[in-house]
Write a structure and sequence with these properties.
Layout (H helix, E strand, L loop, with lengths): L9 H16 L2 E5 L7 H20 L3 H15 L10 H6 L5 H18 L6 H6 L6 E5 L4 H8 L10 E3 L1 H4 L7 H10 L6 E5 L2 H10 L3 E4 L10 H7 L1
Parallel strand pairs: 1-2, 1-4, 2-3, 4-5
Helix pairs in contact: 1-11, 2-3, 2-5
């Protein structure tokens, strides 16, 4: 954990006092991943289209027709509670039966996604100075390989004290298990936890029902540079 110096420099001292106040208020911060920390929504479509276009070329079929067929499968699965059924490899397998094509298309998808994905404003700077005494928990429906693509690129995985993903819970949000695992592991008081996500119902509501607080990215704030002052205000 990073040392926080108490030098006489006024700016450093001010930063230290803010962190002390935050530590007294919060035991843990739970972060959603997609569309909160990284801009998944903005770039995932391009990755999907690149992969399906490659399949269409190999099968010598119309790309737009194949893409629309895949979208139809995706729509039919949008309420599935099984995270494996929400994976690109699964939805693609419903319209493409050749396993080798699915595997290659998945690699294209991952390659494009890794190239295009970016951190949302202020995320890099916020995580460079971890708040002492506050646990950072990542809660995501992604499996480990997807987390690596999206966060490994920015060396962000190491900033979390615990990552709760589908490889661990095999569930979709919202589900209390995403929170309960961390509450139990670190003996957290749910009333002293903060939940940050882009969707209140999926990312934050269960935590709030259990006494915690919520900040919705895109509504309560749009830049993680503003998050420290929001944390201090409680």
């Amino acid at each position: 954990m990073e040392e926080v110096e108490t030098a006489s420099d006024e700016s450093n001292s001010w930063f230290w006092h803010i962190n002390v106040n935050i530590t007294l208020m919060w035991e843990a911060i739970f972060f959603d991943q997609d569309n909160t920390l990284v801009n998944t929504r903005e770039v995932a479509g391009e990755a999907y289209r690149a992969a399906i276009k490659w399949v269409a070329q190999k099968k010598k079929v119309d790309f737009e027709k194949l893409f629309l067929e895949w979208r139809g499968v995706l729509d039919s699965l949008k309420n599935s509670k099984n995270p494996k059924e929400r994976q690109f490899s699964y939805s693609l397998s419903q319209i493409v039966k050749e396993e080798d094509l699915i595997e290659d298309a998945l690699e294209i998808y991952k390659k494009v996604l890794k190239e295009k994905i970016q951190l949302n404003p202020g995320v890099k700077e916020f995580f460079e100075k971890k708040i002492p005494g506050v646990k950072y928990i990542l809660m995501t429906e992604d499996f480990d390989d997807q987390i690596e693509i999206k966060l490994g690129k920015f060396e962000l995985k190491e900033k979390f004290d615990l990552i709760v993903g589908s490889s661990l819970v095999a569930l979709m949000k919202p589900d209390i298990k995403f929170l309960q695992i961390a509450w139990d592991k670190f003996k957290l008081d749910p009333k002293k936890c903060l939940y940050i996500g882009d969707n209140y119902d999926r990312d934050c509501k269960i935590g709030v029902v259990n006494g915690g607080k919520a900040l919705v990215f895109g509504k309560d704030f749009t830049d993680f540079a503003d998050l420290e002052s929001l944390l201090k205000s409680g």
